[in-house]
Design goal:
It is built from 1 helix and 5 strands; from the N terminus they run ββαβββ. The chain is mainly β and 70 residues long. It has one domain. A hairpin with a 5-residue loop joins strand 3 and strand 4. The two termini are 17 Å apart.
Length: 70
């Protein structure tokens, strides 16, 4: 996933919290992550989304998605 920066030069990251409480941080804005989790109609995907960082996420089991600055 390509790195993204806001107008101040801060790297845009997204924290994903799963139903289990497990957290993942991605180097991407929230809007890009949400596009990965939904189909063209905006419906949440019933399956896994695989990331090059070496993990997979089932969007149906995501509790929250938020942008963070690190």
């Amino acid at each position: 996933m390509a790195k993204h920066f806001n107008e101040r030069g801060d790297m845009m990251k997204t924290r994903i919290v799963m139903d289990s409480g497990r957290e993942y941080i991605l180097d991407a804005p929230k809007s890009e992550v949400l596009k990965l989790f939904t189909n063209s109609l905006g419906v949440i995907i019933n399956g896994f989304v695989h990331f090059e960082e070496g993990f997979s996420i089932a969007p149906l089991h995501v509790s929250s998605v938020e942008e963070v600055r690190e």
